[in-house]
C-alpha cells in the first residue's frame, strides 16, 4: 500500500514537471487508464546570412562545366565546386552572301585590299581608267538607282512645284524599309527629288516614278531607254527606288551615268547637300546626307549617291576632284556599313601619294577578263 502510494506520488510529480518516468508510460486510476505521450520541444533555427558568388571555371567536356561557388556564412568564406550541364552550343548565323560573293568576285585580289568586290576609277575628261576591279560585271546597285530616277525626272521637264502625295503604293513591301514620310504626306516634286538624292528617301523616289506620265511602268521604261542611250548595256531597271535586287548595272555603266547626271546643276546640288529641311503636310523634318564625305572639307565632291540592300552590299558612286583633276569613283558590293567610304578614302590617298604614276593610268587584273 505504501509502495502504491509512493508510485502515484512520483507519477504525479513527473506529470507536473511535464515529464514521465522512463518505466511509467501509463497511470492507472480506479476508473480508467490514461496514456501520456512525451511533449516535443520546439526548435527555433538560428538565422544565417549567406552570400553566394558563382564563377564559371571552364568546360570539363562538351556537356558539363565546373562551377566554383563562393559562400559567406557568418563572416566565414566557403568555396565549393559543382558540375553543371553546359548550355547547348548554338551555330552562328551565316552572313548574308551578296550577289558578288555568289559570283566569286570576293576572290579577286587588289593592292589596296579594298573591301568592295567591284571598283572603278576613271578620268571623265578622257575616259582613262586609273583603277579597275571587276568593272564589267553587272550587280545589284540598290539606291544608286535613284541617280537614274533623278536624271529621268529632270530631263522630263516636269513641273517641279507640283505637289505629290505619298500613298500606300509607295510603302516598301519588299524589303520593309522604314520611311519618315507617312502615307498621306505631301511635298513638291522638287523636295521629293532633293531628299531622294541626298538622303535616299525610298517613298520619295517611289512617288516620283508613280507620278510620271503613264505611271511607274512608263517611268521604268524611260529609265531603261535612257540607259541604252548612254551605252549602259549591262544595266536594267525594274523600279525607281533600287529596293529590288533586279536593278543591276556594271561599274563601267555607272561611270557613264555619273558623267551624264553631272551635267545637271540640280542633281549636283541635291546629291551633295549635307542636310535639308522639308515640311510634309506642315510638319518640319530635317534630312541628312547618306554620305558623310559630303561634310568632309578634305573632299571636293561634285555629285554622289550611296546605296545598300543585302544582295548589293554597300555601294557608292562619286564625281570628285583629286589634286584638281576630275575623277569618277565607283564602288560596289562593299562589306561593312562604312566600308565603301573607307575604300574611297583609301583610293584617294593612293592616287595622291603615288602621283603622277597613279593619275596617269593604272589598270588592275580583273575577274571579268575577255
Automatic annotation (TrEMBL):
GO molecular function: serine-type D-Ala-D-Ala carboxypeptidase activity
Entry's EC annotation: 3.4.21.-
Ubl conjugation listed as a keyword: no
Pfam families: Peptidase_S11
Gene3D superfamilies: DD-peptidase/beta-lactamase superfamily
Alphabetical list of SUPFAM superfamilies matching this protein: beta-lactamase/transpeptidase-like
Domain Peptidase S11 D-alanyl-D-alanine carboxypeptidase A N-terminal: 108-335
UniProt binding sites for substrate: 305
Active site annotation, chain numbering: 143, 146, 200
Secretion signal, residue range per the UniProt entry: 1-24
Family, per entry: Belongs to the peptidase S11 family.
Protein name: D-alanyl-D-alanine endopeptidase
Lineage, uppermost ranks: Bacteria, Pseudomonadati, Pseudomonadota, Betaproteobacteria, Burkholderiales
Amino acid at each position: 500500500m505504501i509502495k502504491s502510494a509512493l508510485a502515484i506520488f512520483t507519477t504525479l510529480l513527473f506529470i507536473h514537471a511535464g515529464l514521465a518516468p522512463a518505466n511509467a508510460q501509463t497511470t492507472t486510476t480506479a476508473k480508467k487508464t490514461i496514456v501520456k505521450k512525451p511533449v516535443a520541444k520546439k526548435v527555433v533555427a538560428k538565422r544565417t546570412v549567406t552570400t553566394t558568388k558563382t564563377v564559371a571555371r571552364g568546360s570539363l567536356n562538351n556537356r558539363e562545366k565546373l562551377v566554383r561557388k563562393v559562400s559567406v556564412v557568418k563572416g566565414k568564406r566557403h568555396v565549393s565546386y559543382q558540375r553543371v550541364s553546359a548550355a547547348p552550343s548554338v551555330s552562328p548565323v551565316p552572313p548574308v552572301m551578296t550577289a558578288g560573293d555568289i559570283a566569286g568576285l570576293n576572290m579577286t585580289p587588289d593592292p589596296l585590299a579594298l573591301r568592295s568586290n567591284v571598283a572603278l576609277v576613271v578620268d571623265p575628261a578622257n575616259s582613262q581608267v586609273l583603277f579597275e576591279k571587276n568593272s564589267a560585271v553587272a550587280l545589284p546597285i540598290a539606291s544608286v538607282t535613284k541617280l537614274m530616277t533623278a536624271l529621268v525626272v529632270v530631263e522630263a521637264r516636269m513641273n517641279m512645284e507640283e505637289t505629290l502625295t505619298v500613298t500606300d503604293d509607295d510603302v516598301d513591301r519588299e524589303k520593309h524599309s522604314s520611311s519618315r514620310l507617312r502615307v498621306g504626306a505631301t511635298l513638291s516634286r522638287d523636295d521629293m527629288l532633293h531628299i531622294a538624292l541626298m538622303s535616299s528617301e525610298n517613298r520619295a523616289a517611289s512617288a516620283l516614278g508613280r507620278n510620271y506620265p503613264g505611271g511607274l511602268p512608263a517611268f521604268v521604261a524611260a529609265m531603261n531607254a535612257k540607259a541604252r542611250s548612254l551605252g549602259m548595256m549591262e544595266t536594267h531597271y525594274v523600279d525607281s527606288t533600287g529596293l529590288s535586287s533586279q536593278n543591276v548595272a556594271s561599274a563601267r555603266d555607272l561611270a557613264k551615268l555619273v558623267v551624264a547626271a553631272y551635267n545637271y546643276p540640280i542633281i549636283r546640288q541635291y546629291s551633295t547637300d549635307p542636310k535639308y529641311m522639308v515640311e510634309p503636310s506642315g510638319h518640319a523634318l530635317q534630312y541628312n546626307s547618306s554620305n558623310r564625305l559630303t561634310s568632309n572639307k578634305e573632299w571636293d565632291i561634285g555629285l554622289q549617291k550611296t546605296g545598300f540592300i543585302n544582295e548589293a552590299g554597300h555601294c557608292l558612286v562619286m564625281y570628285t576632284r583629286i589634286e584638281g583633276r576630275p575623277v569618277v569613283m565607283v564602288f560596289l558590293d562593299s562589306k561593312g556599313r562604312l566600308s565603301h567610304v573607307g575604300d574611297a578614302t583609301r583610293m584617294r590617298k593612293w592616287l595622291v601619294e603615288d602621283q603622277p604614276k597613279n593619275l596617269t593610268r593604272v589598270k588592275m587584273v580583273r575577274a571579268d577578263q575577255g
